[in-house]
Design goal:
Elements (H helix, E strand, L loop, with lengths): L2 H15 L1 H8 L8 H25 L5 H28 L5 H26 L8
Helix pairs in contact: 1-3, 1-5, 2-5, 3-5, 4-5
Length: 131
């Protein structure tokens, strides 16, 4: 498997792992999930963490300038998400089961932002308009 395929697989696993905190946060009764739900959540979270580690090892810390610049732009845009979350808490705070989903959201967001430069370098990211 090449670096780009591993980066794509890790991205897919990461997106799939978001199903669990979203579902837990929106469920009226999170304790009503099947018993396998928690096991699958933890197993997928473990695979996401391993994927992040593998990407770092594959890139060997050699993040090119394009990946750095793209990371910076994504970080700057991600700052707006803080405001969106604040509005979400104010508008839907009582309809979301925060205790069931906040930890999952926080660690996944942290891991995404932490691994982003290596992931972009491994995926061979090129800004739009370049070849």
């Amino acid at each position: 498997m090449n670096r780009r395929a591993i980066a794509l697989t890790a991205a897919i696993l990461f997106v799939l792992s978001w199903i669990f905190p979203v579902s837990a946060g929106l469920a009226r009764n999170p304790t009503g999930f099947p018993k396998w739900w928690g096991t699958v959540d933890v197993a997928l979270a473990f695979l996401v963490a391993v994927g992040a580690f593998v990407i770092q090892v594959l890139v060997h810390g050699n993040v090119d300038e394009q990946a750095e610049q793209s990371t910076y732009r994504i970080y700057r845009r991600s700052l707006h998400a803080l405001l969106v979350v604040g509005v979400l808490v104010m508008l839907a705070g009582d309809r979301i089961e925060w205790a069931s989903c906040a930890t999952g959201f926080l660690w996944r967001t942290w891991l995404f932002l932490y691994i982003l430069p290596w992931w972009l370098a491994a995926g061979g990211h090129r800004p739009s308009g370049t070849t």
